[in-house]
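Reopening this one. Same input as before:
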Amino acid sequence: MDASERVGEVFRESYGKVLSHLLARGFDLLRSEDAVSAAFASALTDWNDATPPNPEAWLCRVALHRVIDIERRERRITPLESLAEAADPTETEDPTMFPDERLRLFFLCTHPAIAPEIQTPLMLQLVLGMSAESMSELFLMPAATLGQRLVRAKRKIRDAQILPELPNPEEFQQRLPSVLQAIYGLYSRDWGTTEPTEAMDLARSLVIASEGDPEAMGLFALLLFCESRRAVVRDVYVPLSQQDPSDWDPEMIKSAEQLLQAAAAHKSPGRFQLEAAIQSAHVQRAFTGLPSYVQIARLYEALIAVAPTTSNRLGHVAATLEANGPEAAHALLTKTQLTEPYLPYEAVCAHVALRLNDLAAARNHAEAARALSKDTKTAAYWAEMIQTIQNP
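Same output, byte for byte:
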């Protein structure tokens, strides 16, 4: 592994941690971002021979020196005592009160002064270093538009001097949904490419920090259900309906079911509990041989009522295809309007068209899905489907 690969790996794991280190010591957000970027740029040259024993500590130290230089150069001289404290911080907080410092960044981005529609992409950028370009498909928004909104949000944080801190219990609950969505976005980003340990760790930490909030437990249960099937798709993409349940991880499924039951006991179903319940219904195939698509379709209807996202609507179409046939699924598809290319849409359209025996449409949608695939496993799946359609 060369220096660029090592830095890229550490970037994915530590960007938010290094940025949190600077923000927790009172440095400006925009300057801190510049300093963290400079630290990673330095790593590309300084790590040619070997990676430091503690890469994160190395990056924190370099970024700290960099942000101090920026402060001085811009004539915002920080008192020497503050700089000394920043360079040698003394942690006085009980770490169990906030198990993962990156969560502070998540809650920073959910401050009421930040527009709700930009909170999740802002979290993904500050905590993970994701660019507007890499998030544009996720949020179905042009990269330039998304980038402009992110810059405006950061300036608002700077001008209003909003700090990365734990909100009071009432605000915590109000701002929790956006944090849950950001962690789920992180998991979705890593699915199929790398082990999503960050998302899993953050989801677990959030269950602790929220003192067992049902939606936090629902999110963690959802991720555990998804992770229980990772071994099946590690080397090749296999649709859920074609997977062998005996290959799923029973311990993860057991933990997910326990979390979902604990969340359900609160009798306040929300988006992530419903998504976990859908996954639980799929898991029943391991015991009955066939999932109840009628039940899954009903769960999607409840989910759409609280989270009418394009992804959830397409999930409802897929479940309806199995529960009620291609005509009913096609009727739902006609109500889905998109302005940007979207792989799940093309995928669902291909399967519905195939079931309707409209081979030309099925091939067109499958080719579009292959073109939108970002990994070789998914692209290979669609290439095989295209071959099957052409040579039935």
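So the earlier flakiness isn't reproducible anymore. For the record, The mean pLDDT is 86.
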